[in-house]
């Protein structure tokens, strides 16, 4: 059997965020394409224990190592030690660098602690330049903001093929339901989302919005919802896992109201592919990478971050969402599954990366 190491520098067992969903899906995908995966993850003690077991592997005959750091700086005393050991065994290492928020937002330089954090992020990058064979990024646009001698390859999130048949093309409802799953904030477009659905439904009910978020997020943003809490078009849920899947079954299309800026332009939200997993066409703002996915693959409708444009996008989606369902299924089945991402990592780390065509 093929063997590999997967090193996730944090505990992703509770799946409480998109950043934890991704490593779980990648782990499962590597196993599906035939790998015996030696997983290292968890807190410092758990990583130390896994590392001790790894050192007892006499042959260390692993094909490659795939690393997913968290959005926080590495723990040098354990994380660096593990990666250096793997590097010294001449095992190819691919590192997925998923977040660069610190590089774009000035609020990370307003205190001594944040200055220290920024230094540690930069030191991590220097370490990755020495250790990695390949650097993976969520998108080419994000990769362009970093300099590496190693090849840089896009590795966006993906969808689950097995869920798609639940969404049937002929089941168009009289009152379509949109779903939003995720965080609440100005950056995530919460105000734009609520104002747009209020505008669309001002005269009569044309589309419902099912908003799924964490309870604590809602409590922190109650001021945003005070005007809308009793609206007949809005339903708020705090669910996950199987219960979230049941909510997806009620939806006709997904919405991503992410506000356009230099950082969000290269963002590839996990929810994009989660929506696709449930066969949902997507309405999004015109953040660069999001727009490219949706327009080029005919997966839905793109508006911009203005109230007028996003409201018009909702109206168009109400009329046309059924027309996109076939495109969603084709895209996921041909290009967008987690197994495709795992095969991409395997292909590029086992072959000459400079000859790899980046799809």
From TrEMBL:
Broad class of enzyme this protein falls into: transferase
Record keyword Cell inner membrane present: no
GO biological process: lipopolysaccharide biosynthetic process
GO molecular function: glycosyltransferase activity
SUPFAM superfamilies tied to this protein: UDP-Glycosyltransferase/glycogen phosphorylase (SSF53756)
Recorded superkingdom: Bacteria
Keywords on record: Glycosyltransferase, Transferase
Entry protein name: Glycosyltransferase
Lineage: Bacteria, Bacillati, Bacillota, Bacilli, Bacillales
